[in-house]
Amino acid sequence: MSAGFTVYPAIDVRGGRVVRLAQGDYARETRYAGEPLAVAGAYAGQGATWLHLVDLDAAREGGYTLRPLLRAIVAATGLQVQTGGGVRGRDDVLRLLDAGAARVVVGSLAVRAPAAVMEWIAEFGAERITVALDARLDREGIWRAAVHGWTEQGAPLDGLAAGYAAAGLRHLLSTDIDRDGMLSGPNGALYDHLRALAPGMRVQASGGVRDTGDVAGARGSGCAGIVLGRALLEGRLSLADALRAATC
């Protein structure tokens, strides 16, 4: 895999199980076989170097609960892990970094309290924070970032992305929520829009990835990485093929 593009297999955990939600809807959950640690180990064995780990319980309720799992994954697999869900304050960031996270993903708070998150970028460094601005189009055609486990709409995406770019953010993850878990392909227009707003940031595409064409397309369009969830879990896309597509 090239240094410029990263494939992030994703493990979303709810109630201790590996799950996926359709369009962020907690009532539309699919559970998958395998313990989270075993799934992470399998991804490492197939060539992954990074893992995207999400605490879905905490994303809605607050209070990250996966620190023991995070420690175990880092110790057992050697994967670099970016992880989030329920990060509400500076102490949460510190605890996750101490538990072995390579990057802490900040979602709802990045929308609700951007000034605080910008301070963390300055304090911990741009390589240790990933801001997740997951969004839906509103009725006026404006992208709005979602909060509280994607259950509420927040501020317009444009202003947030531009503000974080000015504050030195390096890693931006964005999901078109309406495509998440739907195997309908990533929203290339959204990522083109974000990269135009903030050309210096490394944008991670997420949501709807189906096949190697989607991986190659994200790389070719200038994204710095792609998050793979349902397609990997259901065997529609192999990690080995995704990693090859990331280098072609």
**Poorly predicted ranges:** none
Order of helices and strands: EEEHEHHEHEHHEEEEHEHEHEHH
Radius of gyration: 16 Å
Q: Largest sheet, described in full? A: 8 strands, parallel, barrel
The neighbouring-strand order within the major sheet is 1-4-5-6-7-11-12-13
The name of the CATH topology is TIM Barrel
Helical content class: 25-40%
CATH superfamily: Aldolase class I
CATH architecture: Alpha-Beta Barrel
Oligomer: single chain
Name of the CATH class: Alpha Beta
When the domains are counted, the total is 1
Topology, number of strands: 13
Span between termini: 9 Å
Strand % is 25-35%
Estimated structural class: alpha/beta
Average pLDDT over all residues: 93
Topology diagram in text:
Layout: E1 6-14, E2 17-22, E3 25-31, H1 36-45, E4 50-55, H2 56-61, H3 67-77, E5 80-84, H4 90-98, E6 103-106, H5 108-112, H6 114-124, E7 129-132, E8 135-137, E9 143-147, E10 152-156, H7 157-166, E11 171-175, H8 188-197, E12 202-206, H9 212-220, E13 225-228, H10 230-233, H11 239-245
Parallel strand pairs: 1-4, 1-13, 4-5, 5-6, 6-7, 7-11, 11-12, 12-13
Antiparallel strand pairs: 1-2, 2-3, 8-9, 9-10
Helix pairs in contact: 1-3, 9-11
Characterise this structure:
By secondary structure, this protein is an alpha/beta fold. It is built from eleven helices and 13 strands. It has helices at 36-45, 56-61, 67-77, 90-98, 108-112, 114-124, 157-166, 188-197, 212-220, 230-233, 239-245, and strands at 6-14, 17-22, 25-31, 50-55, 80-84, 103-106, 129-132, 135-137, 143-147, 152-156, 171-175, 202-206, 225-228. The strands form two sheets. It has an eight-stranded parallel barrel, surrounded by seven helices. It comes from Luteimonas salinisoli.
